Amino acid sequence: MSLFVLLIGVQGAGKGEQARFITQKYGIPQLSTGDLFRAMKTRTDDFARRIQQLMAEGKLIDDETTCEVVRERLALDDAQGGVIFDGFPRTPAQADWLAGYLQSNGHALNAVILLDLDLYSAFKRAYGRVSAADGKTYNYYFNRGDVQFEFVPHETKLFPPRLKATLDGQELNRRPDDASADAVIKRIDTFVAETAPLVDYYKAAGTLHRIDAAGSIADVSAQIDAILSR
User: Fold this and answer.
1) Choosing from 20, 90, 125, 164, which is the catalytic residue?
2) Which of 10-19, 55-64, 75-84, 101-110 has the lowest mean pLDDT?
3) Helix axes 119-127, 181-205, angle to 10 degrees
4) pTM above 0.85, yes or no
5) Confidence of residue 210 (pLDDT cuts 50, 70, 90)
6) Computed from CA positions of residues 20, 24, 25, 29, in that sequence, does the dihedral angle turn out positive or negative?
7) What is the pLDDT of residue 106?
């Protein structure tokens, strides 16, 4: 039996962590449009070059092109038993396309899971998170562990201080788009604008499951497992 799952959640809601849990438990891959678009940079075919040009010009990728990228990914062998959708669909038009594509192949979305998190917590989770070389994560606001955090003033004083994190003398990694508070807020604003109609779309379809993402990783995973095992 195939399993097609859509995860929806603002940055910091834990989509990546829960996608890894679903992959390990149910053996289906994660389909992230962000990853797919980044992979286009290594291709030389006409379709990839067209997407590269759009990205180079800073233009949004239109629905038709996005859906074609997803179609390519869904045609691969490892996606025949299902996938975890992350970052797609983003609009009702993309949701309509996905429903039609899955139906034409004898499938349907088994569950749409909204990882619900208040926006203040979402900001702190994203802006404060860092990761060590072994993949373990820490957070300035929630989980400091033995990490030494400090705000380092910009040398010109024209920009806000930089959050620096070190552990055992090694500086930890921060995602570039987490390092700027303005960039984090813009991503939250985009999520709010895009997701509200999508949540209503799936709520009306009766496939939406809402989970409080403020709980522990294990608790959220257990709730997702309960939904998918049904």
Assistant:
1) 90
2) 55-64
3) 130
4) no
5) very high
6) positive
7) 93
CA gap 121, 214 in Å, rounded: 8
73 a catalytic residue: no
β-strand partners of 169: none
Q: In whole angstroms, what is the distance from residue 218 CA to residue 213 CA?
A: 11
Residues of the chain with CATH 3.40.50.300: 5-117+192-229
The token pair at 37 is 């678009």
Residue 35: pLDDT band with limits 50, 70, 90: confident
- Exposure pattern of 57-66 as b/e (b: 16+ CB <10 Å)? eeeebebeeb
pLDDT in tens, 147-196: 999 998 888 888 888 899 999 989 999 888 788 888 899 889 988 988 88
Specify whether domain 5-117+192-229 bears CATH 3.40.50.300.
yes
Of 49, 175, 186, 203, which is the active-site residue?
Answer: 175
Is there a catalytic annotation at residue 71?
no
